[in-house]
Amino acid sequence: MDVPELLRRAACHVPAAASDEAGTTVADANEYLDHDEWEIALDILVELGDAYRSQIAFWDLLAEAARMMWLSRTERWCHWRRFEVVHGVVRADLQLVDPGVAGGRRIPIPGDGRLRPLWDIGDVTAAGDPDLYVARLWVESQPDLQPGGRAVVRLAPLSPQRWRRLVPGHVITMHEQRPVAGTATIVESALPLDEAAAVAAAVADPVVTGTG
């Protein structure tokens, strides 16, 4: 498939009523496609991916289109959103420690999910030490996070099931070596679509058991 076909197939996944914060809809994306404005159409579809319950196929199509257009950051973002469809969303307000403090970074954190720091989410090992888990980090709304800076970030844990118990308000710490490199407060923790649907169904139709 060429780029226009990939984008048109992705557009078919978007409900006509879905719109982003600016009120843009899939009709706008298709109009730009009609005028061979592929990059603008791609940007619109990426934004619309957060306006409805997007599926894996949607992000796969957009990722391939971005790859063919040499838009590496957009491609990485589409792969990231695909991961979130499968494993759920974890967002946190991250404050890095000062670069002059032990554990503080002296160079910016790249914002496109390449950094894989360790996180203390409150679990401990059999010896009583913190049990640290790897999670990739994506910085929202900016290309990177400066030393000592603060931003809302998205996390992609390598062991997503271990993070299920986290809810907004939980505080976790980031580590690149032993000292704390940053402190993060969870602002969103959403189950993947399949699990969320299963939980909703169980709540709506609970199974009542008894001894007879």
Structure report:
33% of the residues lie in helices and 25% in strands. It is α+β, with helices and mostly antiparallel strands and 212 residues long. β7 and β8 (180-190) form a beta hairpin. α2 packs antiparallel against α3 (38-48). The protein has helices spanning 3-11, 26-34, 38-48, 56-68, 72-87, 193-204; strands at 89-96, 109-110, 118-124, 130-139, 144-145, 150-157, 171-175, 180-190. Strands 1-6-4-3-7-8 form a six-stranded antiparallel β-barrel.
CATH top-level class of the largest domain: Mainly Beta
Total number of helical segments? Answer: 6
β-sheet strand percentage? 25-35%
| Terminal residue distance | 60 Å
Count the strands? 8
Any idea what the CATH architecture of the largest domain is?
Beta Barrel
* Structural Rg: 20 Å
Structural class: alpha+beta
According to CATH, the fold-level topology of the largest domain is Elongation Factor Tu (Ef-tu), domain 3
SSE string, helices as H and strands as E: HHHHHEEEEEEEEH
Question: Number of domains in the coordinates?
Answer: 2
Instruction: Describe the strand arrangement of the main beta sheet, using strand numbers.
Output: 1-6-4-3-7-8
Note the overall shape.
elongated
Stretches with pLDDT under 50, minimum 5 residues: 198-202, 208-212
Largest sheet: 6 strands, antiparallel, barrel
The amount of helix comes to 25-40%
- CATH homologous superfamily heading of the largest domain: Translation factors
Overall pLDDT score: 90
